[in-house]
């Protein structure tokens, strides 16, 4: 009955939120003993606290906490006969412990000088990073911890695969690819952040081309280009990376 331990390790690796449900007290006849645990995500449950109405109610409470992104512990007392109509007839207390708060997922397109500088900063922050480039030789031999490398000739598929609210950073070596990525990201309409490397001149050119492709002005207005906090000056890769990371942190803080 310790499958939840391995499942929790997998969820930590994936950055997926969950609630650990624990029977912390028992009085009289109960379906499971004190210390029994069940791990609950939005889509599944690992282990059982005894089934029946008790487990049904526990699952509902845990998923309500996930939906509300609750961050505090919750203790519920269940008289099994009086409240839930279970034949056990005892009473049990259940602790709901939210774990692994959701982390922003970032898709970083481009493994050039700025991309390499930026990914080293992002890896130190509580984000999940997918680093995408079609040129395998551009990636360093050793990736920062927590960064997933994608050598991908079809990066638009990565855009489609990212969950709602993801952060997108586009800084590839190819303006045509930048434009295709920008169009795909803006058509989604659900990015938590979208930054495109480039000057004001590049932005104007992209605004025109994206408008021709049917992207609305309101959608284009959400594209940050030039990207990075303007107060952080400098043109060196490390300086640009700091400015971009600062903007992402500020954006996440506002959300």
Automatic annotation (TrEMBL):
Domain (XdhC Rossmann): residue spans on this chain: 107-248
Record domain XdhC- CoxI: where: 12-74
PANTHER family per the UniProt record, alphabetical: ALDEHYDE OXIDOREDUCTASE MOLYBDENUM COFACTOR ASSEMBLY PROTEIN (PTHR30388), XANTHINE DEHYDROGENASE SUBUNIT A-RELATED (PTHR30388:SF6)
Protein name: Xanthine dehydrogenase accessory protein XdhC
Lineage: Bacteria, Pseudomonadati, Pseudomonadota, Gammaproteobacteria, Enterobacterales
């Amino acid at each position: 009955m310790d499958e939840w331990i391995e499942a929790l390790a997998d969820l930590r690796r994936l950055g997926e939120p969950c609630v650990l449900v624990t029977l912390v007290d028992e009085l009289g006849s109960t379906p499971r003993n004190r210390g029994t645990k069940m791990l609950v995500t939005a889509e599944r449950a690992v282990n059982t606290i005894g089934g029946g109405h008790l487990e049904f109610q526990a699952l509902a409470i845990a998923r309500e906490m996930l939906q509300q992104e609750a961050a505090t512990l919750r203790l519920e007392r269940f008289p099994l006969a009086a409240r839930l109509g279970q034949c056990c007839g005892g009473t049990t207390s259940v602790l709901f412990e939210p774990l692994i708060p959701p982390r922003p997922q970032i898709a970083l397109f481009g493994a050039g000088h700025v991309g390499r500088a930026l990914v080293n900063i992002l890896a130190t922050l509580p984000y999940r990073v997918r680093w995408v480039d079609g040129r395998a030789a551009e990636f360093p031999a050793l990736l920062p911890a927590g960064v997933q490398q994608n050598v991908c000739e079809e990066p638009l598929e990565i855009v489609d695969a990212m969950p709602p609210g993801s952060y997108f950073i586009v800084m590839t070596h190819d303006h045509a690819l930048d434009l295709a990525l920008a169009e795909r990201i803006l058509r989604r309409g659900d990015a938590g952040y979208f930054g495109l490397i480039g000057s004001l001149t590049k932005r104007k050119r992209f605004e025109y081309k994206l408008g021709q492709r049917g992207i609305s002005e309101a959608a284009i207005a959400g594209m940050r280009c030039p990207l990075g906090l303007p107060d952080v000056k400098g043109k060196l890769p490390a300086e640009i990376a700091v400015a971009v990371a600062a903007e992402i942190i500020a954006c996440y803080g506002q959300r």
